[in-house]
């Protein structure tokens, strides 16, 4: 990535907003919240674009900013919101894929934001323990602990037969 | 199903890579292995972003820049007026900053560095720059009154607007090892590079690049062992390769400006920063031990501590915190207390049941707001990979000896 003008930023944002939105959807569980999160993230990048564009990997920087923005926002909101244990409604006649998505999203929504971020970084973005720890500003040991705990909880919600769910796609 | 818009990022050696070669998985293992596939399948069904998302981001960013520009303009005009009153000069002259009748830089600086935790270097930058322009989009970072060991480098960036263009100005100041020697023997081999030497032992190196490179720079090495580097890059979108709105002489003047003197005085020399003092702390805290380096940054060091036959992987992280903030345990395997010397301490243990490592984390808060956090885990001396063991690494006492060392506050 060279240059640091608005045109370059526009190209970058168009090319990367889809991928950022998918990660944001997994983190937030809601398309509108996810788009807000992506908008905030890209807004932060825009303000520092000249420096960001000169980095070795602006894409990695964007994803790190997205996850950190999500975790910070959840910390701020935690004191004023209560968790809701009810599962989201499933649309009548939804396809298997939609069922799968709802089941996965419902499972993720039962986890704490930090645990969700760990799973998304490890199993969707395929980051190593060390990189995940760096992004979340915690120790690698904490990532391993959170990852195991979150997997156990998710397995309880989704059921052990996740292979069947995956095969149904 | 697994291609198209939901295609995941390229493999980076994460969870998926760790499964290669694993045989006979349990139900939990199988669940973990299949999770990425399930996520990909689910993500395929997500809606894409709104078509106007990027346009909204850019509009909002531009709006924010305008607000910042107006805010800084207002602040600088107020500073100018206050400064004018203080030095008793009459108003008038050219440009926003009052032209020749504007107050001298010393009168414009209003930041009390002893009181100002965050250290607002934008005031110093405003004093160092010519007075016929306007600053906006400023960012600054320097804890002038923070712990000494964290005061390694001061940094400020801002956009400088003149009637005919806009330039991004970046200034960084530090105290490198051998500063005065560096000033006498500057390495300047490139075309576009010039060096001049001052009678006081200082030197200024300027660099005016040939297109398409666009960043002009000046490096001032002072007799007080300080290094001030100024970089100026044109931001005009119509001609990105154009020269900055600052001339070479003006960039040099910013680098050599006395407006930075109090910042320079507050900087800690490189030898007194973490990488400089850590070997001594390790040897004093654990007699006979030494550290081999992996990576060192301004606030973190990752390394291996060799003690007897054992090798421990250690990460030391420093940060400034508000004084008297209590340490709190948020999970089990954690205790909060006081060291023998009375400093607040938090000890945590992370054990990964199905993994390979046990990690000890010790956090100590020093007076003056310095927090030291040690992460340690035993590694195999053969391949330096983490091993599962309760003993052989650093003891709690050894970790504490490192964390409480008075050398951190020296």
UniProtKB/TrEMBL annotation, chain A:
The keyword Transcription regulation applies. Coiled coil: none annotated. This is SigE family RNA polymerase sigma factor. Pfam families: Sigma70_r2 (PF04542), Sigma70_r4 (PF04545). It comes from Streptodolium elevatio. Keywords: DNA-binding, Sigma factor, Transcription, Transcription regulation. The keyword Transcription applies. Belongs to the sigma-70 factor family. ECF subfamily. Residues 18-77, 108-155 form the RNA polymerase sigma-70 region domain. It comes from the Bacteria.
UniProtKB/TrEMBL annotation, chain B:
Residues 1-11 have a biased composition (Pro residues). The chain crosses the membrane at residues 69-87. Keywords: Membrane, Transmembrane, Transmembrane helix. Residues 1-28 are annotated as: Disordered. This is DUF4179 domain-containing protein. It comes from the Bacteria.
